[in-house]
Each structure stands twice: as structure tokens, then as C-alpha cells.
Amino acid sequence: MNPPLPFVRESGSGAPVVCIHSNASSSSQWRAMMDLLASEYHVLAPDSYGAGKSPDWRSDRFISLEDEVTLIEPLLTRSQSPVTLVGHSYGAAVALKAALMLPSRVRAMALYEPTLFALVDASHPPPNGADGIRNTVQAAAAFLDAGDTQQAAQAFIDYWMGAGTWANMPAQRKPPIAESVVNVRRWAHALLTEPAGIEAFRRIDVPVLYMVGKRSTASAHAVADILIPALPKVQAVAFEDLGHMGPITHPDVVNAEVKRFLEQT
User: Fold this and answer.
1) pLDDT tens digit string along 96-110?
2) Does residue 157 belong to any structural domain of this protein?
3) What average pLDDT does the segment 170-195 reach?
4) By residue range, what is the domain housing residue 12?
5) Do 212 and 236 form a contact (C-beta atoms < 8 A)?
6) Into how many domains does the chain fold?
7) Are 81 and 15 in contact (CB under 8 A)?
8) 85 phi/psi in degrees, rounded to 5
9) Cα–Cα distance, 196 to 160 (Å, whole number)
10) Any domain includes 135
11) How far is CA 197 from CA 19, 123, 258, in A?
């Protein structure tokens, strides 16, 4: 059976750029990026499974990064020229998986802290740098089992953005996040069980902009420590004052760096 089609935001014309959002978010996080690039690029931003206006994942088995790539594959194959992928967090992990699955369709990638935690576990069995997110997922899952989506969302958001972030968040922003965090187990499963090893990523022969926030978590930095040395054509950029959610909290800073990379490549 053919996979469903994702909801896609679309703007501009020119070389294709596909933007893949983070967990507990949707394609709406790329609005500023789309406005910035639309005069020169054809920008497409899909909603992943269970996010925004895309359908939910309908299967008894846990979702994989391969499933996420299959959902957006029509966006990567419909244009005559290969696409540039822009990804944040989970979306950056999906972008890397797409480069492995469809290498002829990817010309470059701009990634903000891909969360391929399986690489950390493969490099060094737990306890390791992925323990922070592993413990957070366990805590959020326990709250979900108790029927408390608000506490689950707080555990997840405060891990990535700092203690107190959830409490200080505007009330109108909380419901969609709390609704999406019910998927926290499947996100973690996709990222912690991804079968591709580091040798596969050493063969990604396209320019990669790898962005990190110096105020991000140990789990995100642990992935960067493994991936940055492995990618053969990587440019690493570290933002002094940004955390893991930099593309959302400081879009102007991150988007300007992405635009520079696009112009360069």
C-alpha cells in the first residue's frame, strides 16, 4: 500500500530546498526561513507523521527514520534537480537518513543538531552521552502512562530548553505540544535503534553544514562529537548563545547561516 502524502508548506521558485522540522513542532517552525529564501529558492516544508496537518502513523510497529523518509520521498524526487535538505533535531536525523537512502536526490544538507542517538550507543554502551535524553523519555513516558500529558510535555521541553521553560511558556502554545508528546516513545525508538552505523555516514559525499548550540544538552553534543569528524564534506558552526532549540528561539541567527551556506554551495 502506498504511504499517505504529507501536508506541505510551499513558497518561492528556484532550486529546491526541503525543510524538516523537529519533534513537538511542525512545518510552521520554518515560516521565517521560507520568507527569507523564497526570492531565490523553491522551499518546501512538510509536516511529519502526527505533526501539524499530516496524517498520524497508523501501524502497530514503531516508526523508523526510514518510514519518515518514505513519507517525504515524493518531495525529494519530483524535481529535476537534487534538493538541499534543511533539518532540525529529529528532522536533521531524517535528513541524514534520506541522504543514505536517496543519495542521488540530495545535493547538500544544513543540519542543526541531528539527534542520532544510536550512534552514541554504538560508540560506547550506556552509561554514555545519550543518557540525558534516555532518562527524559522514560520520565515523560511514565507521566503519559499516568494520563498526565502536561507533565510529560514539561519533562520533554524542559530537558531541551532548560528548567522552567514549560511553566513560562504562553498558555496557547502548550496544547499542541502536549498533544504531540504522546509520541515520545516512538521518536526515541526511531533515534535509538537506527541501524545505520557511522561508516555509512562517512560515505555521504555532499556538502554538510552542521550547526550546534554551545548551550545545548550533553546528548546533542555527544552526537555531534561522533558525526562531525565522520562527515567528509562538513562545515561545523557553533553558536555561542544558542541551545538545542536555536532554529525556533533564534531563527534570524540560524536562518542567516543557512542562507550563507546555500549561496556558497
Assistant:
1) 999 999 999 999 999
2) no
3) 96
4) 8-123+196-264
5) yes
6) 1
7) yes
8) -100, 135
9) 25
10) no
11) 24, 9, 27
